[in-house]
Predict the structure.
Amino acid sequence: MIIRHIPMKKTRLSSFSGLVQYLCNQQNKQERVGKIRLSNCNSLDPIWAVQEVLATQAKNQRAIGDKTYHMLISFAPGENPSAQVLKEIEDTVALSIGFKEHQRISVVHHDTDNLHIHVAINKIHPQTFNMIEPFRAYKIFSEIASKLEIELGLQITNHQTRKNRSENLADDMEHHSGIESLINWMKRSCKEKIEAAISWKEIHTILAGHGLMIRIKANGFVFCDAQGLIVKASSISRTFSKKNRLYTN
């Protein structure tokens, strides 16, 4: 199983409605489009679900960049998981990159030898209206794919050899400047939320939802991720200088 983020390079596809229209188009191939699934939408009709998503995206006028995330989950030739397994995989992967509660529309395609699912995800949270930007998603995808292959009895894939050029470039960049990457990602994804938190319990919950922790180090605080990257908390927000906050578990 291969899981990938597909960048929105074409303006038409960068809009949620344009992407869903493309995914649901048979393109003169009788069996191209299979099951369409709506998640976290009130409507049961894709057309109206798209309008829900656009209304949610309109609530966030601060976000810079694309508000739509296009994810592809592809299976080995001849592999045809059941609808329940496909649902479990989609839900697990969405959770792993912070999109559990986000509106999304997934479409199963049968137009190649590899069954695959396209997932259009609204990066704007439907309640908080904050935009989530997954950090180093390709690493998470590799790990979660390996885990699901074993748990669900799917064909094992060598994920280490399947990185594309941009992913290898990201590896090189993060080797030299991973700290800067984490700082920028946190500022985009959770700075506003942790600054608005009114208790340490709330801060811990917000950070955990982004795969992060906060620790005391020397005379201040640091944020750290599961891969061991550490950044000064004050580099994310000046409210985290130790004189401004009393740390409690």
Remarks:
- Residues 175-244 form one domain.
- The chain has two domains: 2-162, 175-244.
- The radius of gyration is 19 Å.
